[in-house]
Queue: 4 jobs
Job 1
Amino acid sequence: MDQATRKDGSDVWAAAGDLRIFERLLDPYLILDSDGAVVSANAAWRTLFAFPEGAAPDGLLAEQRRNCEHLIVNIAASLRAGQRRSSPVFRLDGGRSTDETTGSTAPAARHWQIFAQRVPATQDLPSHVVLRFEDVTARTLAGEGERREKAQMRSNARLRKILVQETQKQLADHLGHFEEALAFAGVGAWELDLMAGTVKCSERCRRDLGQVHADELMHASFLGDTTEQFAAHWRLLQSGQPFEFERLVERQTGRRWVLVRGMARFDDDVTVRSVVGFTLDITGRKEREIEAHAVAGEERSGRERSEALAATMDRFIAAVSHELRSPLNAIVSWAELLQLVADPNHVAKAGDAIRRNGRQLSRMVDDLLDSGAVVTGKLSANLKPIDIGPLVAIVVEDMRKLAEHKGLQLDIAELGSCVVLADENRLGQVVSNLLTNAIKFTDAGSVTVSMKVLDDHVSIQVRDTGRGIEPEALPRIFDRFEQIAPRTSGRVGGLGLGLWLARQIVDLHGGMLDGASDGAGLGSTFTVRLPLMQPGGE
């Protein structure tokens, strides 16, 4: 293996140079003939294992190479035609490594595994053995490191166990000194002997737990106030870990918070023999924690309210800027058209558009003013006896042109005479807002208004065949700046104040306003309930 040559003595490297693919393989390859002599070796093999002519390894490297040669010979001799085999991992240093201290170089430590196959003879080629050398240095060193690490972990575990045993022995020897130190520090000491079923408790511990007589200590659970807590603490004790919990104690002098902490003491067979611990009055600290939690909760609520207000304001600004721009642009455009065109038809159409958009602007301004009055608590109503039937009829007629403009049928199904205490303008505003919403969100079909007198109240109902309301949106339909259109229908013009203002006004009259819908595309129904005017009322 020091100098790979053919059996006839010719240079194997010159012959191998014609096998370009074989020569360029990254893994070291060696080819032997049926007698075990080297036929060819690729460049990777020569770089790693071949020595210059006249040079020979010595010492450890020479021994490694002899072992490798024996391994190759044994593998080649044991292979039958078509059979494959892999060798055990062996060491054969290669390449060079530099000592940082001395600057000298030496072969780098490498580990290999050989994968061999005997190729049967063919018409053109005799039988030969192909050996591939795979570098398994990283895997081998990683396995050795893992074994060393496990051994170190076992050693550390044994050391920890010894330290725990010594600590427990010292704790038993100095328990008296420990109790004296705790008493001086205002801490109560206790010990629960599980084998004897007894409790030892210092006077301070007894006072902390609110116990008057020593025999009552057996009724105080030192391992937890609940079954779940007891089980969790017992698991900690068995694993050698301490536990602690806080207990609220009712005393004649008031309520006190006490911290109870304990740890287990073990027998030689690693069973829990007793539990020792201490009690500490933490009332002052606990009260400060409760106060801090309360303050933090108030601050969190304040931030949430502030963020909600900011989000509401953003929606408000976006809605107002959009909704005011549309009618203003329409008014300006028609006004400019009037200056350019003298056609009476255009004049009438322009006047109608200007009036319609002007009324829309007026309603939005009124809604904004009323919204501000509601928020500041200044919204008022001048309650007087009014006949609600004619009022509803007037509002319906005012809205009829808007419905006809969209091609909708506006009907009054049932309308009678009924006297209630109400502000005529405010109540008309409620009916107008409900009808405006119904017409706005109905693309085809009809809007129907009805009124019924039931026992002690009157019910006004506005029903449409429009886009409807999705179930998850129903709880939000009376929120400010909230539109009730389904998500699939897109945004519809408006500030989102109509239903919110209507409910505020109805509440001001002592009534109720509810909305209902069977879902998207199935229309909506809004119902106003107002108390009837009692005989003798003003």
Note: The first strand starts at residue 29 and ends at 33.
Job 2
Amino acid sequence: MSNMTTTAVGNTAIPERAAERPFWSAPVLLEYWNAGRRHIWLALAIVAAVTVAGAIITLLMTPQYTATSRIEIAREQANVTNVEGLKRESSAPDQEFYLTQYSLLNARSLAERVERRLRLARNPEFFAAHGETPEGEGLLSGVRSGPVSAADLRERERQAVELLLDNVGISPLRGSALVDVSYSSASPQLSRLIASTWVNEFVQQSMDRRLASTADARIYLEGRLQGLRDRLEKSERDLVNYAARQGIVRLSEIQGEDGRTRTTQTLASSDLEQLNRLLVQATAERAEAESKLSAARAPGATQLGLSNQSLSTLRQRRAEANAAYQELLVQFEPEYPQAQAAREKVAALDRAISAEETRVRGAYSADYNAAVQRETDLRARVDRLLGRLDTENRSSIQYNIYQREVDTNRELYDGLLQRYKEIGVAGVGTNNISVVDDAVNPVKPSSPRLVLNLAAALLLGLLFAGLTVVILENLDESVREPQQISDRLGVPLLGAIPVVDDEVLSDIEDPKSILSEAYMTVRTNLGFSTDHGLPRTMALTSTSPSEGKSTSAYSLARVIGRTSGSVVLVDVDMRRPVVATRLGLDNSKGVSNFLAGEDNWEDLIQTIGKSNVSFISAGPVPPSASELLSGDRLASLVRALSERFDHVILDSPPMLGLSDAPLIANVVEGLIYVIEADRTAVRASQAAITRLRESRAHILGALLTKYRARQSGYGYGYGYGYSYGKDAAATDGAN
């Protein structure tokens, strides 16, 4: 680890590589896989429920029969009079033609023709085949059984048309002029009849539409063309005259797909674009010159020495001369001639360095002033051109009005002129639609399809299950992964403590146990948290109780006691002291007694077996722990303990709703924040850390406890079978 440099994070120095990459980040797909594993039973339940619902719905559906007729829609190739320009040869118009025909096949007007031809509004079997009840109760097979109003009949016709449109299907055969027209209902005979009638009525409708022309169309178009011609000429003259009066010079124009003429660039906008590029460049040069000048004027002016070889050489020579002078002072008095000569040499080099720095700063200042002047000149020119462009833009409003009027008149004139020519020469062509295969009675249902519906239900269930898992994961605010510590809380990660199956206190006694190795990693990382290595005084706190804070305090004390000298563990959680009970030690006297006024703190120290760790209990629960902690006696106790022991560790109360931890944090070098994995909410931890920082507490880092690495998707080992990936349900401490 000698090649690892350190960097500061807030007030904490941590390894540079740890600051850049605080923890291994799992791939996105692996994170989704882990989320699915955490909610596997819920996902399976959702998939099973949706699949069963799909099967039940499929079995309850009424069988539908589909009859299909096939027609050919040929592209019109010739007219009686073949006029140049009327014949479409490109593929795009062919596509437009066929899309139009497909829309006509599914048009409401065609459905109304079929309804009138078959008198479906008067046929109750038609409504029964679709599971519908017809409006009114007076028409049965065309025979009146009672009075029926005209409104009821119109409503039946509308209802029949809607049913036709909902159940007809238009399916073009790809790469051909053939189209399948299908109809589905619960009656095979009715499906065949409607499919056959639909295509026949479409053929008849096409012929009727082709022959529907009026004799007045030509006369009407002639009158309209003359008026549009005059309007077009006048609008073009107005456009040219206005542009000349306002001095509008258009460099380029385009005509859009809608026939509108749009100006893309004018002379003023072109000039402004070029000047603006120069201004951006000048601004960048001025900012660079200003940055160099500011760096040169800064105290110490480190940048001057880095960028100026002469200044760097002078400083090196000055350091060498000063070193020689200091060596002479070791043997001789300052008035000794050789010492005086060495001192003069150092002074001369100081003057040379000062002169060189002044020269470099002057050069930077000259460059900066020139850059500022150029930027100012260009900005003034841009401002003047902006005013000119603003005037031109205001004039362009009226210009665009004239331009739109010209485009509109030209579009109307060209359209009417083309239509006039087509009417003048177009004749009647042959019918281009023919029936290839007439519909037959279907012999088996076309729907529902059990296998297809089950597959769709399974896919839908998987989608719902995935969506549910994603929602639950996003609603979960707990910290699950070690890398989330630095990403969400902004504090460095000291280590991740795994859950263990065995008793925590017995595990920590074994230096080769998983728990001891984990806390040894935390102790190693703590060595990088200050400039003098492992902090001598530290405290542990958490967001809420039962996050492993007290266990971590004891475990760190044991690990540090084995590696770094004597340690004293002080339980300052006077509201809920638990360490003494777990260790089987006396809690009758402790910190609360000293804070209340007793001065003999040495009598409070208890030994823990044959270890290098001592313990001071919290003592009797006081009426107000905050008042005791707010005095100076806790700080004096920590100072006294730090003089006797190499390290002092304080077990502090949790942060939630209490003011004890910020008071305790101010009497130690740093604070370790304990977070339980898969439990503590990020917002609560963020609020607690913010309170600590506002109280000027020095946060050394965060400790993630009760961590299950295998559930998170990766292990943590040392290569000889040691792994954090246990699936144990035990925790590492209640507090």
Note: Residues 337-425 form the longest helix (89 residues).
Job 3
Amino acid sequence: MSENLRSQVVTQGVQRSPNRAMLRAVGFRDEDFTKAIVGIANGYSTITPCNMGINKLAQRAEIGIRNAGGMPQMFGTITISDGISMGTEGMKYSLVSREVIADSIETACTGQSMDGVLAIGGCDKNMPGALIAIARMNIPAIFVYGGTIKPGNYNGRDLTVVSSFEAVGQYSAGKIDENELLEVERHACPGAGSCGGMYTANTMSSAIEAMGMSLPYSSTMAAEDEEKAESTEKSAFFLLEAIRQQILPSQIITRKSLENAISVIMAVGGSTNAVLHLLAIAHTAGIELTLNDFETIRARVPVLCDLKPSGRYVATDLHKAGGIPQVMKMLLVHNLLHDDCLTITGQTVAEVLADVPEEPSANQDVIRPWNNPLYQQGHLAILRGNLAAEGAVAKITGIKIPKITGPARVFEAEEACLDAILAKKIYPGDVIVIRYEGPKGGPGMREMLAPTSAIIGAGLGDCVGLITDGRFSGGTYGMVVGHVAPEAAVGGAIALVEEGDTITIDAHARSLHLDISDEELASRRANWQPRPPRYTTGVLAKYSKLVSSSSLGAVTDLDLF
């Protein structure tokens, strides 16, 4: 039990009665008042398949905490289904939910003086939201991933939720008929669990395992498998040990462990959203981390895993091939991982990986051998230029044409762009610009999975570029650049692009450039006027007023005073 609460319920004599009476009502007995109070931040929701299996895990955690000698106190936190809200106004709330999740966990744990917390989440923002709260509170904590969905199957091919979005583009381009479109939709998501490729949820669960804030192998387990429930109960045991030994998040979430997480994300081909979320976690933990650090690590870490969206396999295949520990061991052997980082198990990274083989099994090809990587360098690149003075983020591997120069096709919102793609008004060589979708301007920095999937489905993925101050789903791939900063809403250069301007995206040079003179750019900037806010009340209005640039993690507590 925390010193704060213990002093209230144990040492204050007569004044302790109200506190103890309330706790008795929720199940405390005389002998329980000296036990650690452990929060279970339960992200259960039937809103999304990502979270619909979590309540059973939370109940298993409750049993584990009791068996390990603690007093579990369960509370709920929210989720937004990115896949369901994608392409709608509701998607503006997705990134906002990261902050709401963090604030809700902090409020419950600190308000009730909890000694530790076990956070369980599934959909994309659950993971970074929980880690931000954990870093902020700095009480013993562990994260439990709700687990990945198993792949759907249709006509002998594995499907994920992204298959449905791409099928819309294929249907619009006349490549498939309505029956096949419906069959893909019916088979893409067969049950509980987060989206199955190396999309944002699986990327962040992998990053958290690499950081040492969750148990080995737990980040790639299927939601519906018994080993996920067993791992949850085991997590409760390690959390109680961390409380007894006072192993704190500040000892685990360090500059070195964040570098380990970035290295793993590069090796598995993870989501661009990881850049945004790790910057935010680092900010909360008081650790200096910048976009340049991602570029430094990208240059030295190869892509080892052949995973969707651009590859062939899903997270459950990675799990069978050895999971994140196998990837980490390969990086460790080649001096690309810090081996002395502490993990929630009380062991160092080197100790956790001691028995893991140095090379993956030869009878699988999900994880490539070190001497035959998918790509020699990482896939998440930081692009800069007069269109992105603060930086932008792109996946640069797997694209057939690494440089594109073409006319700008300018859209003030995602919906208008999608309409143009589906109406076949986008042509090879075009560079699409979707703006006023940034953290402040959207607000909420929507993901652009609908238009990017429609581009892929229409067969334009290798010949059309797209830039935006919004984000991309972890399922996005192709010649696309997101997180362009400064964003349009604050007068970034992306706001100054005019229809027909020439834009150059150069992946190899890591450059994003509007091909006009400095004088013309300055003239346009002088004439630019900010737009009135889209929301003036409610959570989106508050978010828009507080949120920082995406280049700083889109955090909401940067300049409060």
Note: Residues 151-190 form one domain.
Job 4
Amino acid sequence: MTFNNQPYGGTIGNTVADSTPWWPDPVTPPPGSPNVVMVVLDDVGFADLGCFGAEIDTPVMDALAANGLRYNNFHTTAICSPTRACLLTGRNHHSVGMAVVSNWDTGFPGCTGRISNRAATLAEMLRPAGYSTFAVGKWHLAPIEDTTPAGPFDQWPLQRGFDRYYGFLDGATNQWDPDLVADNHHIDPPDKPGYHVTEDLVDQAIGMVTAQTSAWPERPFFLYLCFGTGHYPIHAPNPYIDRYNGRYNTGWGAIREERFARQKELGIIPEDTELPPFNPGVPQWEELSADEQRLATRMQQAYAGMLTHTDEHLGRLMATLQEIGQADNTVFVLLSDNGATQEGGPSGHENAMRFINGLEPRSIDQQLADIDEIGGPNSWMAYPMGWAMAGNTPLKWYKQNTHAGGVRDPLIISWPAGISDTGAVRTQYHHVSDIAPTLLEAIGLEPPAEMAGVAQMPMEGTSMVYSFSNAEAPTAKADQYYEMLGHRAMWVDGWKAVTRHIQGESFDDDRWELYHLDRDFSEARDLADAEPERLAALIDRWWGAARDYQVLPLDDRILERFHVPKPRPITSRSRFVYYPGAYIPSDGCPDLKNVSYEIAVELERADGDDGTLMACGDVASGFALFVQDGHLVWDYNMAWEHYVAVSAEALPAGQLTVAAAFERTGSYAGSGRLLVNGVEVGSVAMPQTHNTHIHAVGISVGFTKAPSPSPRYSGQFPFTGTLSQVVIDVADDRELPGQLLIID
């Protein structure tokens, strides 16, 4: 007989008098086990924290570094979901199935959009050892089509080892009005003036750890706290943006030079480090007009303000841990998931959904007219890549690339009870897959051979604990491969071979570069021609690693991977029927890109009944079908290009079927018609429609979940009549995508 998976140690007679009770041993962690607080920043470059050379105010993170260690030779995967998969499992990202973002499943083992159950997360490993486990903030580790109210939930945080979850499941969200999930269900953000999700996330984190400590102070906890900072949309309260007035007027070249000098003063980079030339495509500041400089300056102010705002609220968590006596025996790990991003392009976008859907920025006059909106609720900003170049100082290239600008990122580890060499810099080469083995060793746990009946793959990371007390210890890591969107690299014993792939070109034509990183921190001196044999050996090592870790087949597709014809039970239909109050997240919605469709709404209204019938997206991009002043309106928001159809006459009272019908007439182009009881009542040309992503915010029925996609109304604008159902019929004239979007 077993009891709680342990052999029953008592005896059972006919009565309690002749029986002996027995209780299983309680699950307890090793004595003195520390708490773990892991803080993940998003798209924050190597040089963007004060303690890594920035002029940006990050006093809380700087204090964490002063009480711990900064690692200047720490590497990630160059993009978000894969880094998080490595971080939580201690394995390489292709090994666990997360080649790129969790939105993509290409039908190959290395790119499934989910973490293999053969790779337990830290939460799954720590919870059986007696830890409470909390996840707060960005997840982006579940297939997005699985994040509807129907699930499946197997890759949501609670099913991957976390006791509690509060945050957003997709890769980005509106920081002023986020798409929130609590545990296993979607919720509306708190209705409070000036709400910002960063403050809310810290409130939730504080609530979780204080409740845990109040109830059971001896039980350690693992808090996984992932901010949206500084992924687009860049959103920050105005006082934080205004704090940097005038600070960036000198431009990205000057800021880069200042950071470079400061990094040498701080000992973050070696004295002999060279500052490489500007990345191709980044203009000199003096080449910009005064108006272009003014706009670019405001964008960087917003980014800096967002980072300072996050730092300040992180300080509230740190203060709370101190107050409740949990700070000293806590291992703090703070990192960025990849380098600063090039996704804003040369001039930036005050609406990143334009970039995502292949649109050019609006005219400089239009942008300047709205310059004060940048960083606020009516913007979805991504800054110019010149600022990203400065953010990655002194490194080349950006997020997505396997050069150092994409993969070498800031890391701070602080553990008052376990690290005495505080304020120091560590130079050992390490990778994000090394964090989980490090934490397990610090706690005193072995990775499990089996989890929930599933045999576990070996740990592929290398513990960093040896470096805590020994600055001079040689790097324990033997090698590390990289691959992202076709970009590739291989590091072995201080040498790195790397290639920047040109999308659509043959991989055989990629030009490989060679750097001796132990003597060339910034990858400034290419030794490929001088050391061809060494380069060839490293390339061979890369191919070996690619075969070992499920990297193959090489795949540089971007737009096409959003449209892979994978069977999806939730979306592989031609008819979708939704009912009032339903909310369906983005990739769980019907794919309405480059295909004809009709949205039919059965309703009953009296005179004066108005409101949303169906909405998708938010202020940055999407569409809304609604009744306003009695008229049926369809506002198609193509990233601020609005195509609007309005019924010529007001709707009659009574039972009606109204519809918005899109007819595809060309590649990502068509026309829209409004119908009432089958009769056309309005139309609009739609010369350019969404080609990659309508929005992270999905479909809401009978109300508008997020800030309205249409400027014609605000708020949730619920329909005041009776809405029976919404039926979306998708035609079979979809055109397979071409290579429209190039992220380069």
Note: The two ends are 61 Å apart (CA to CA).
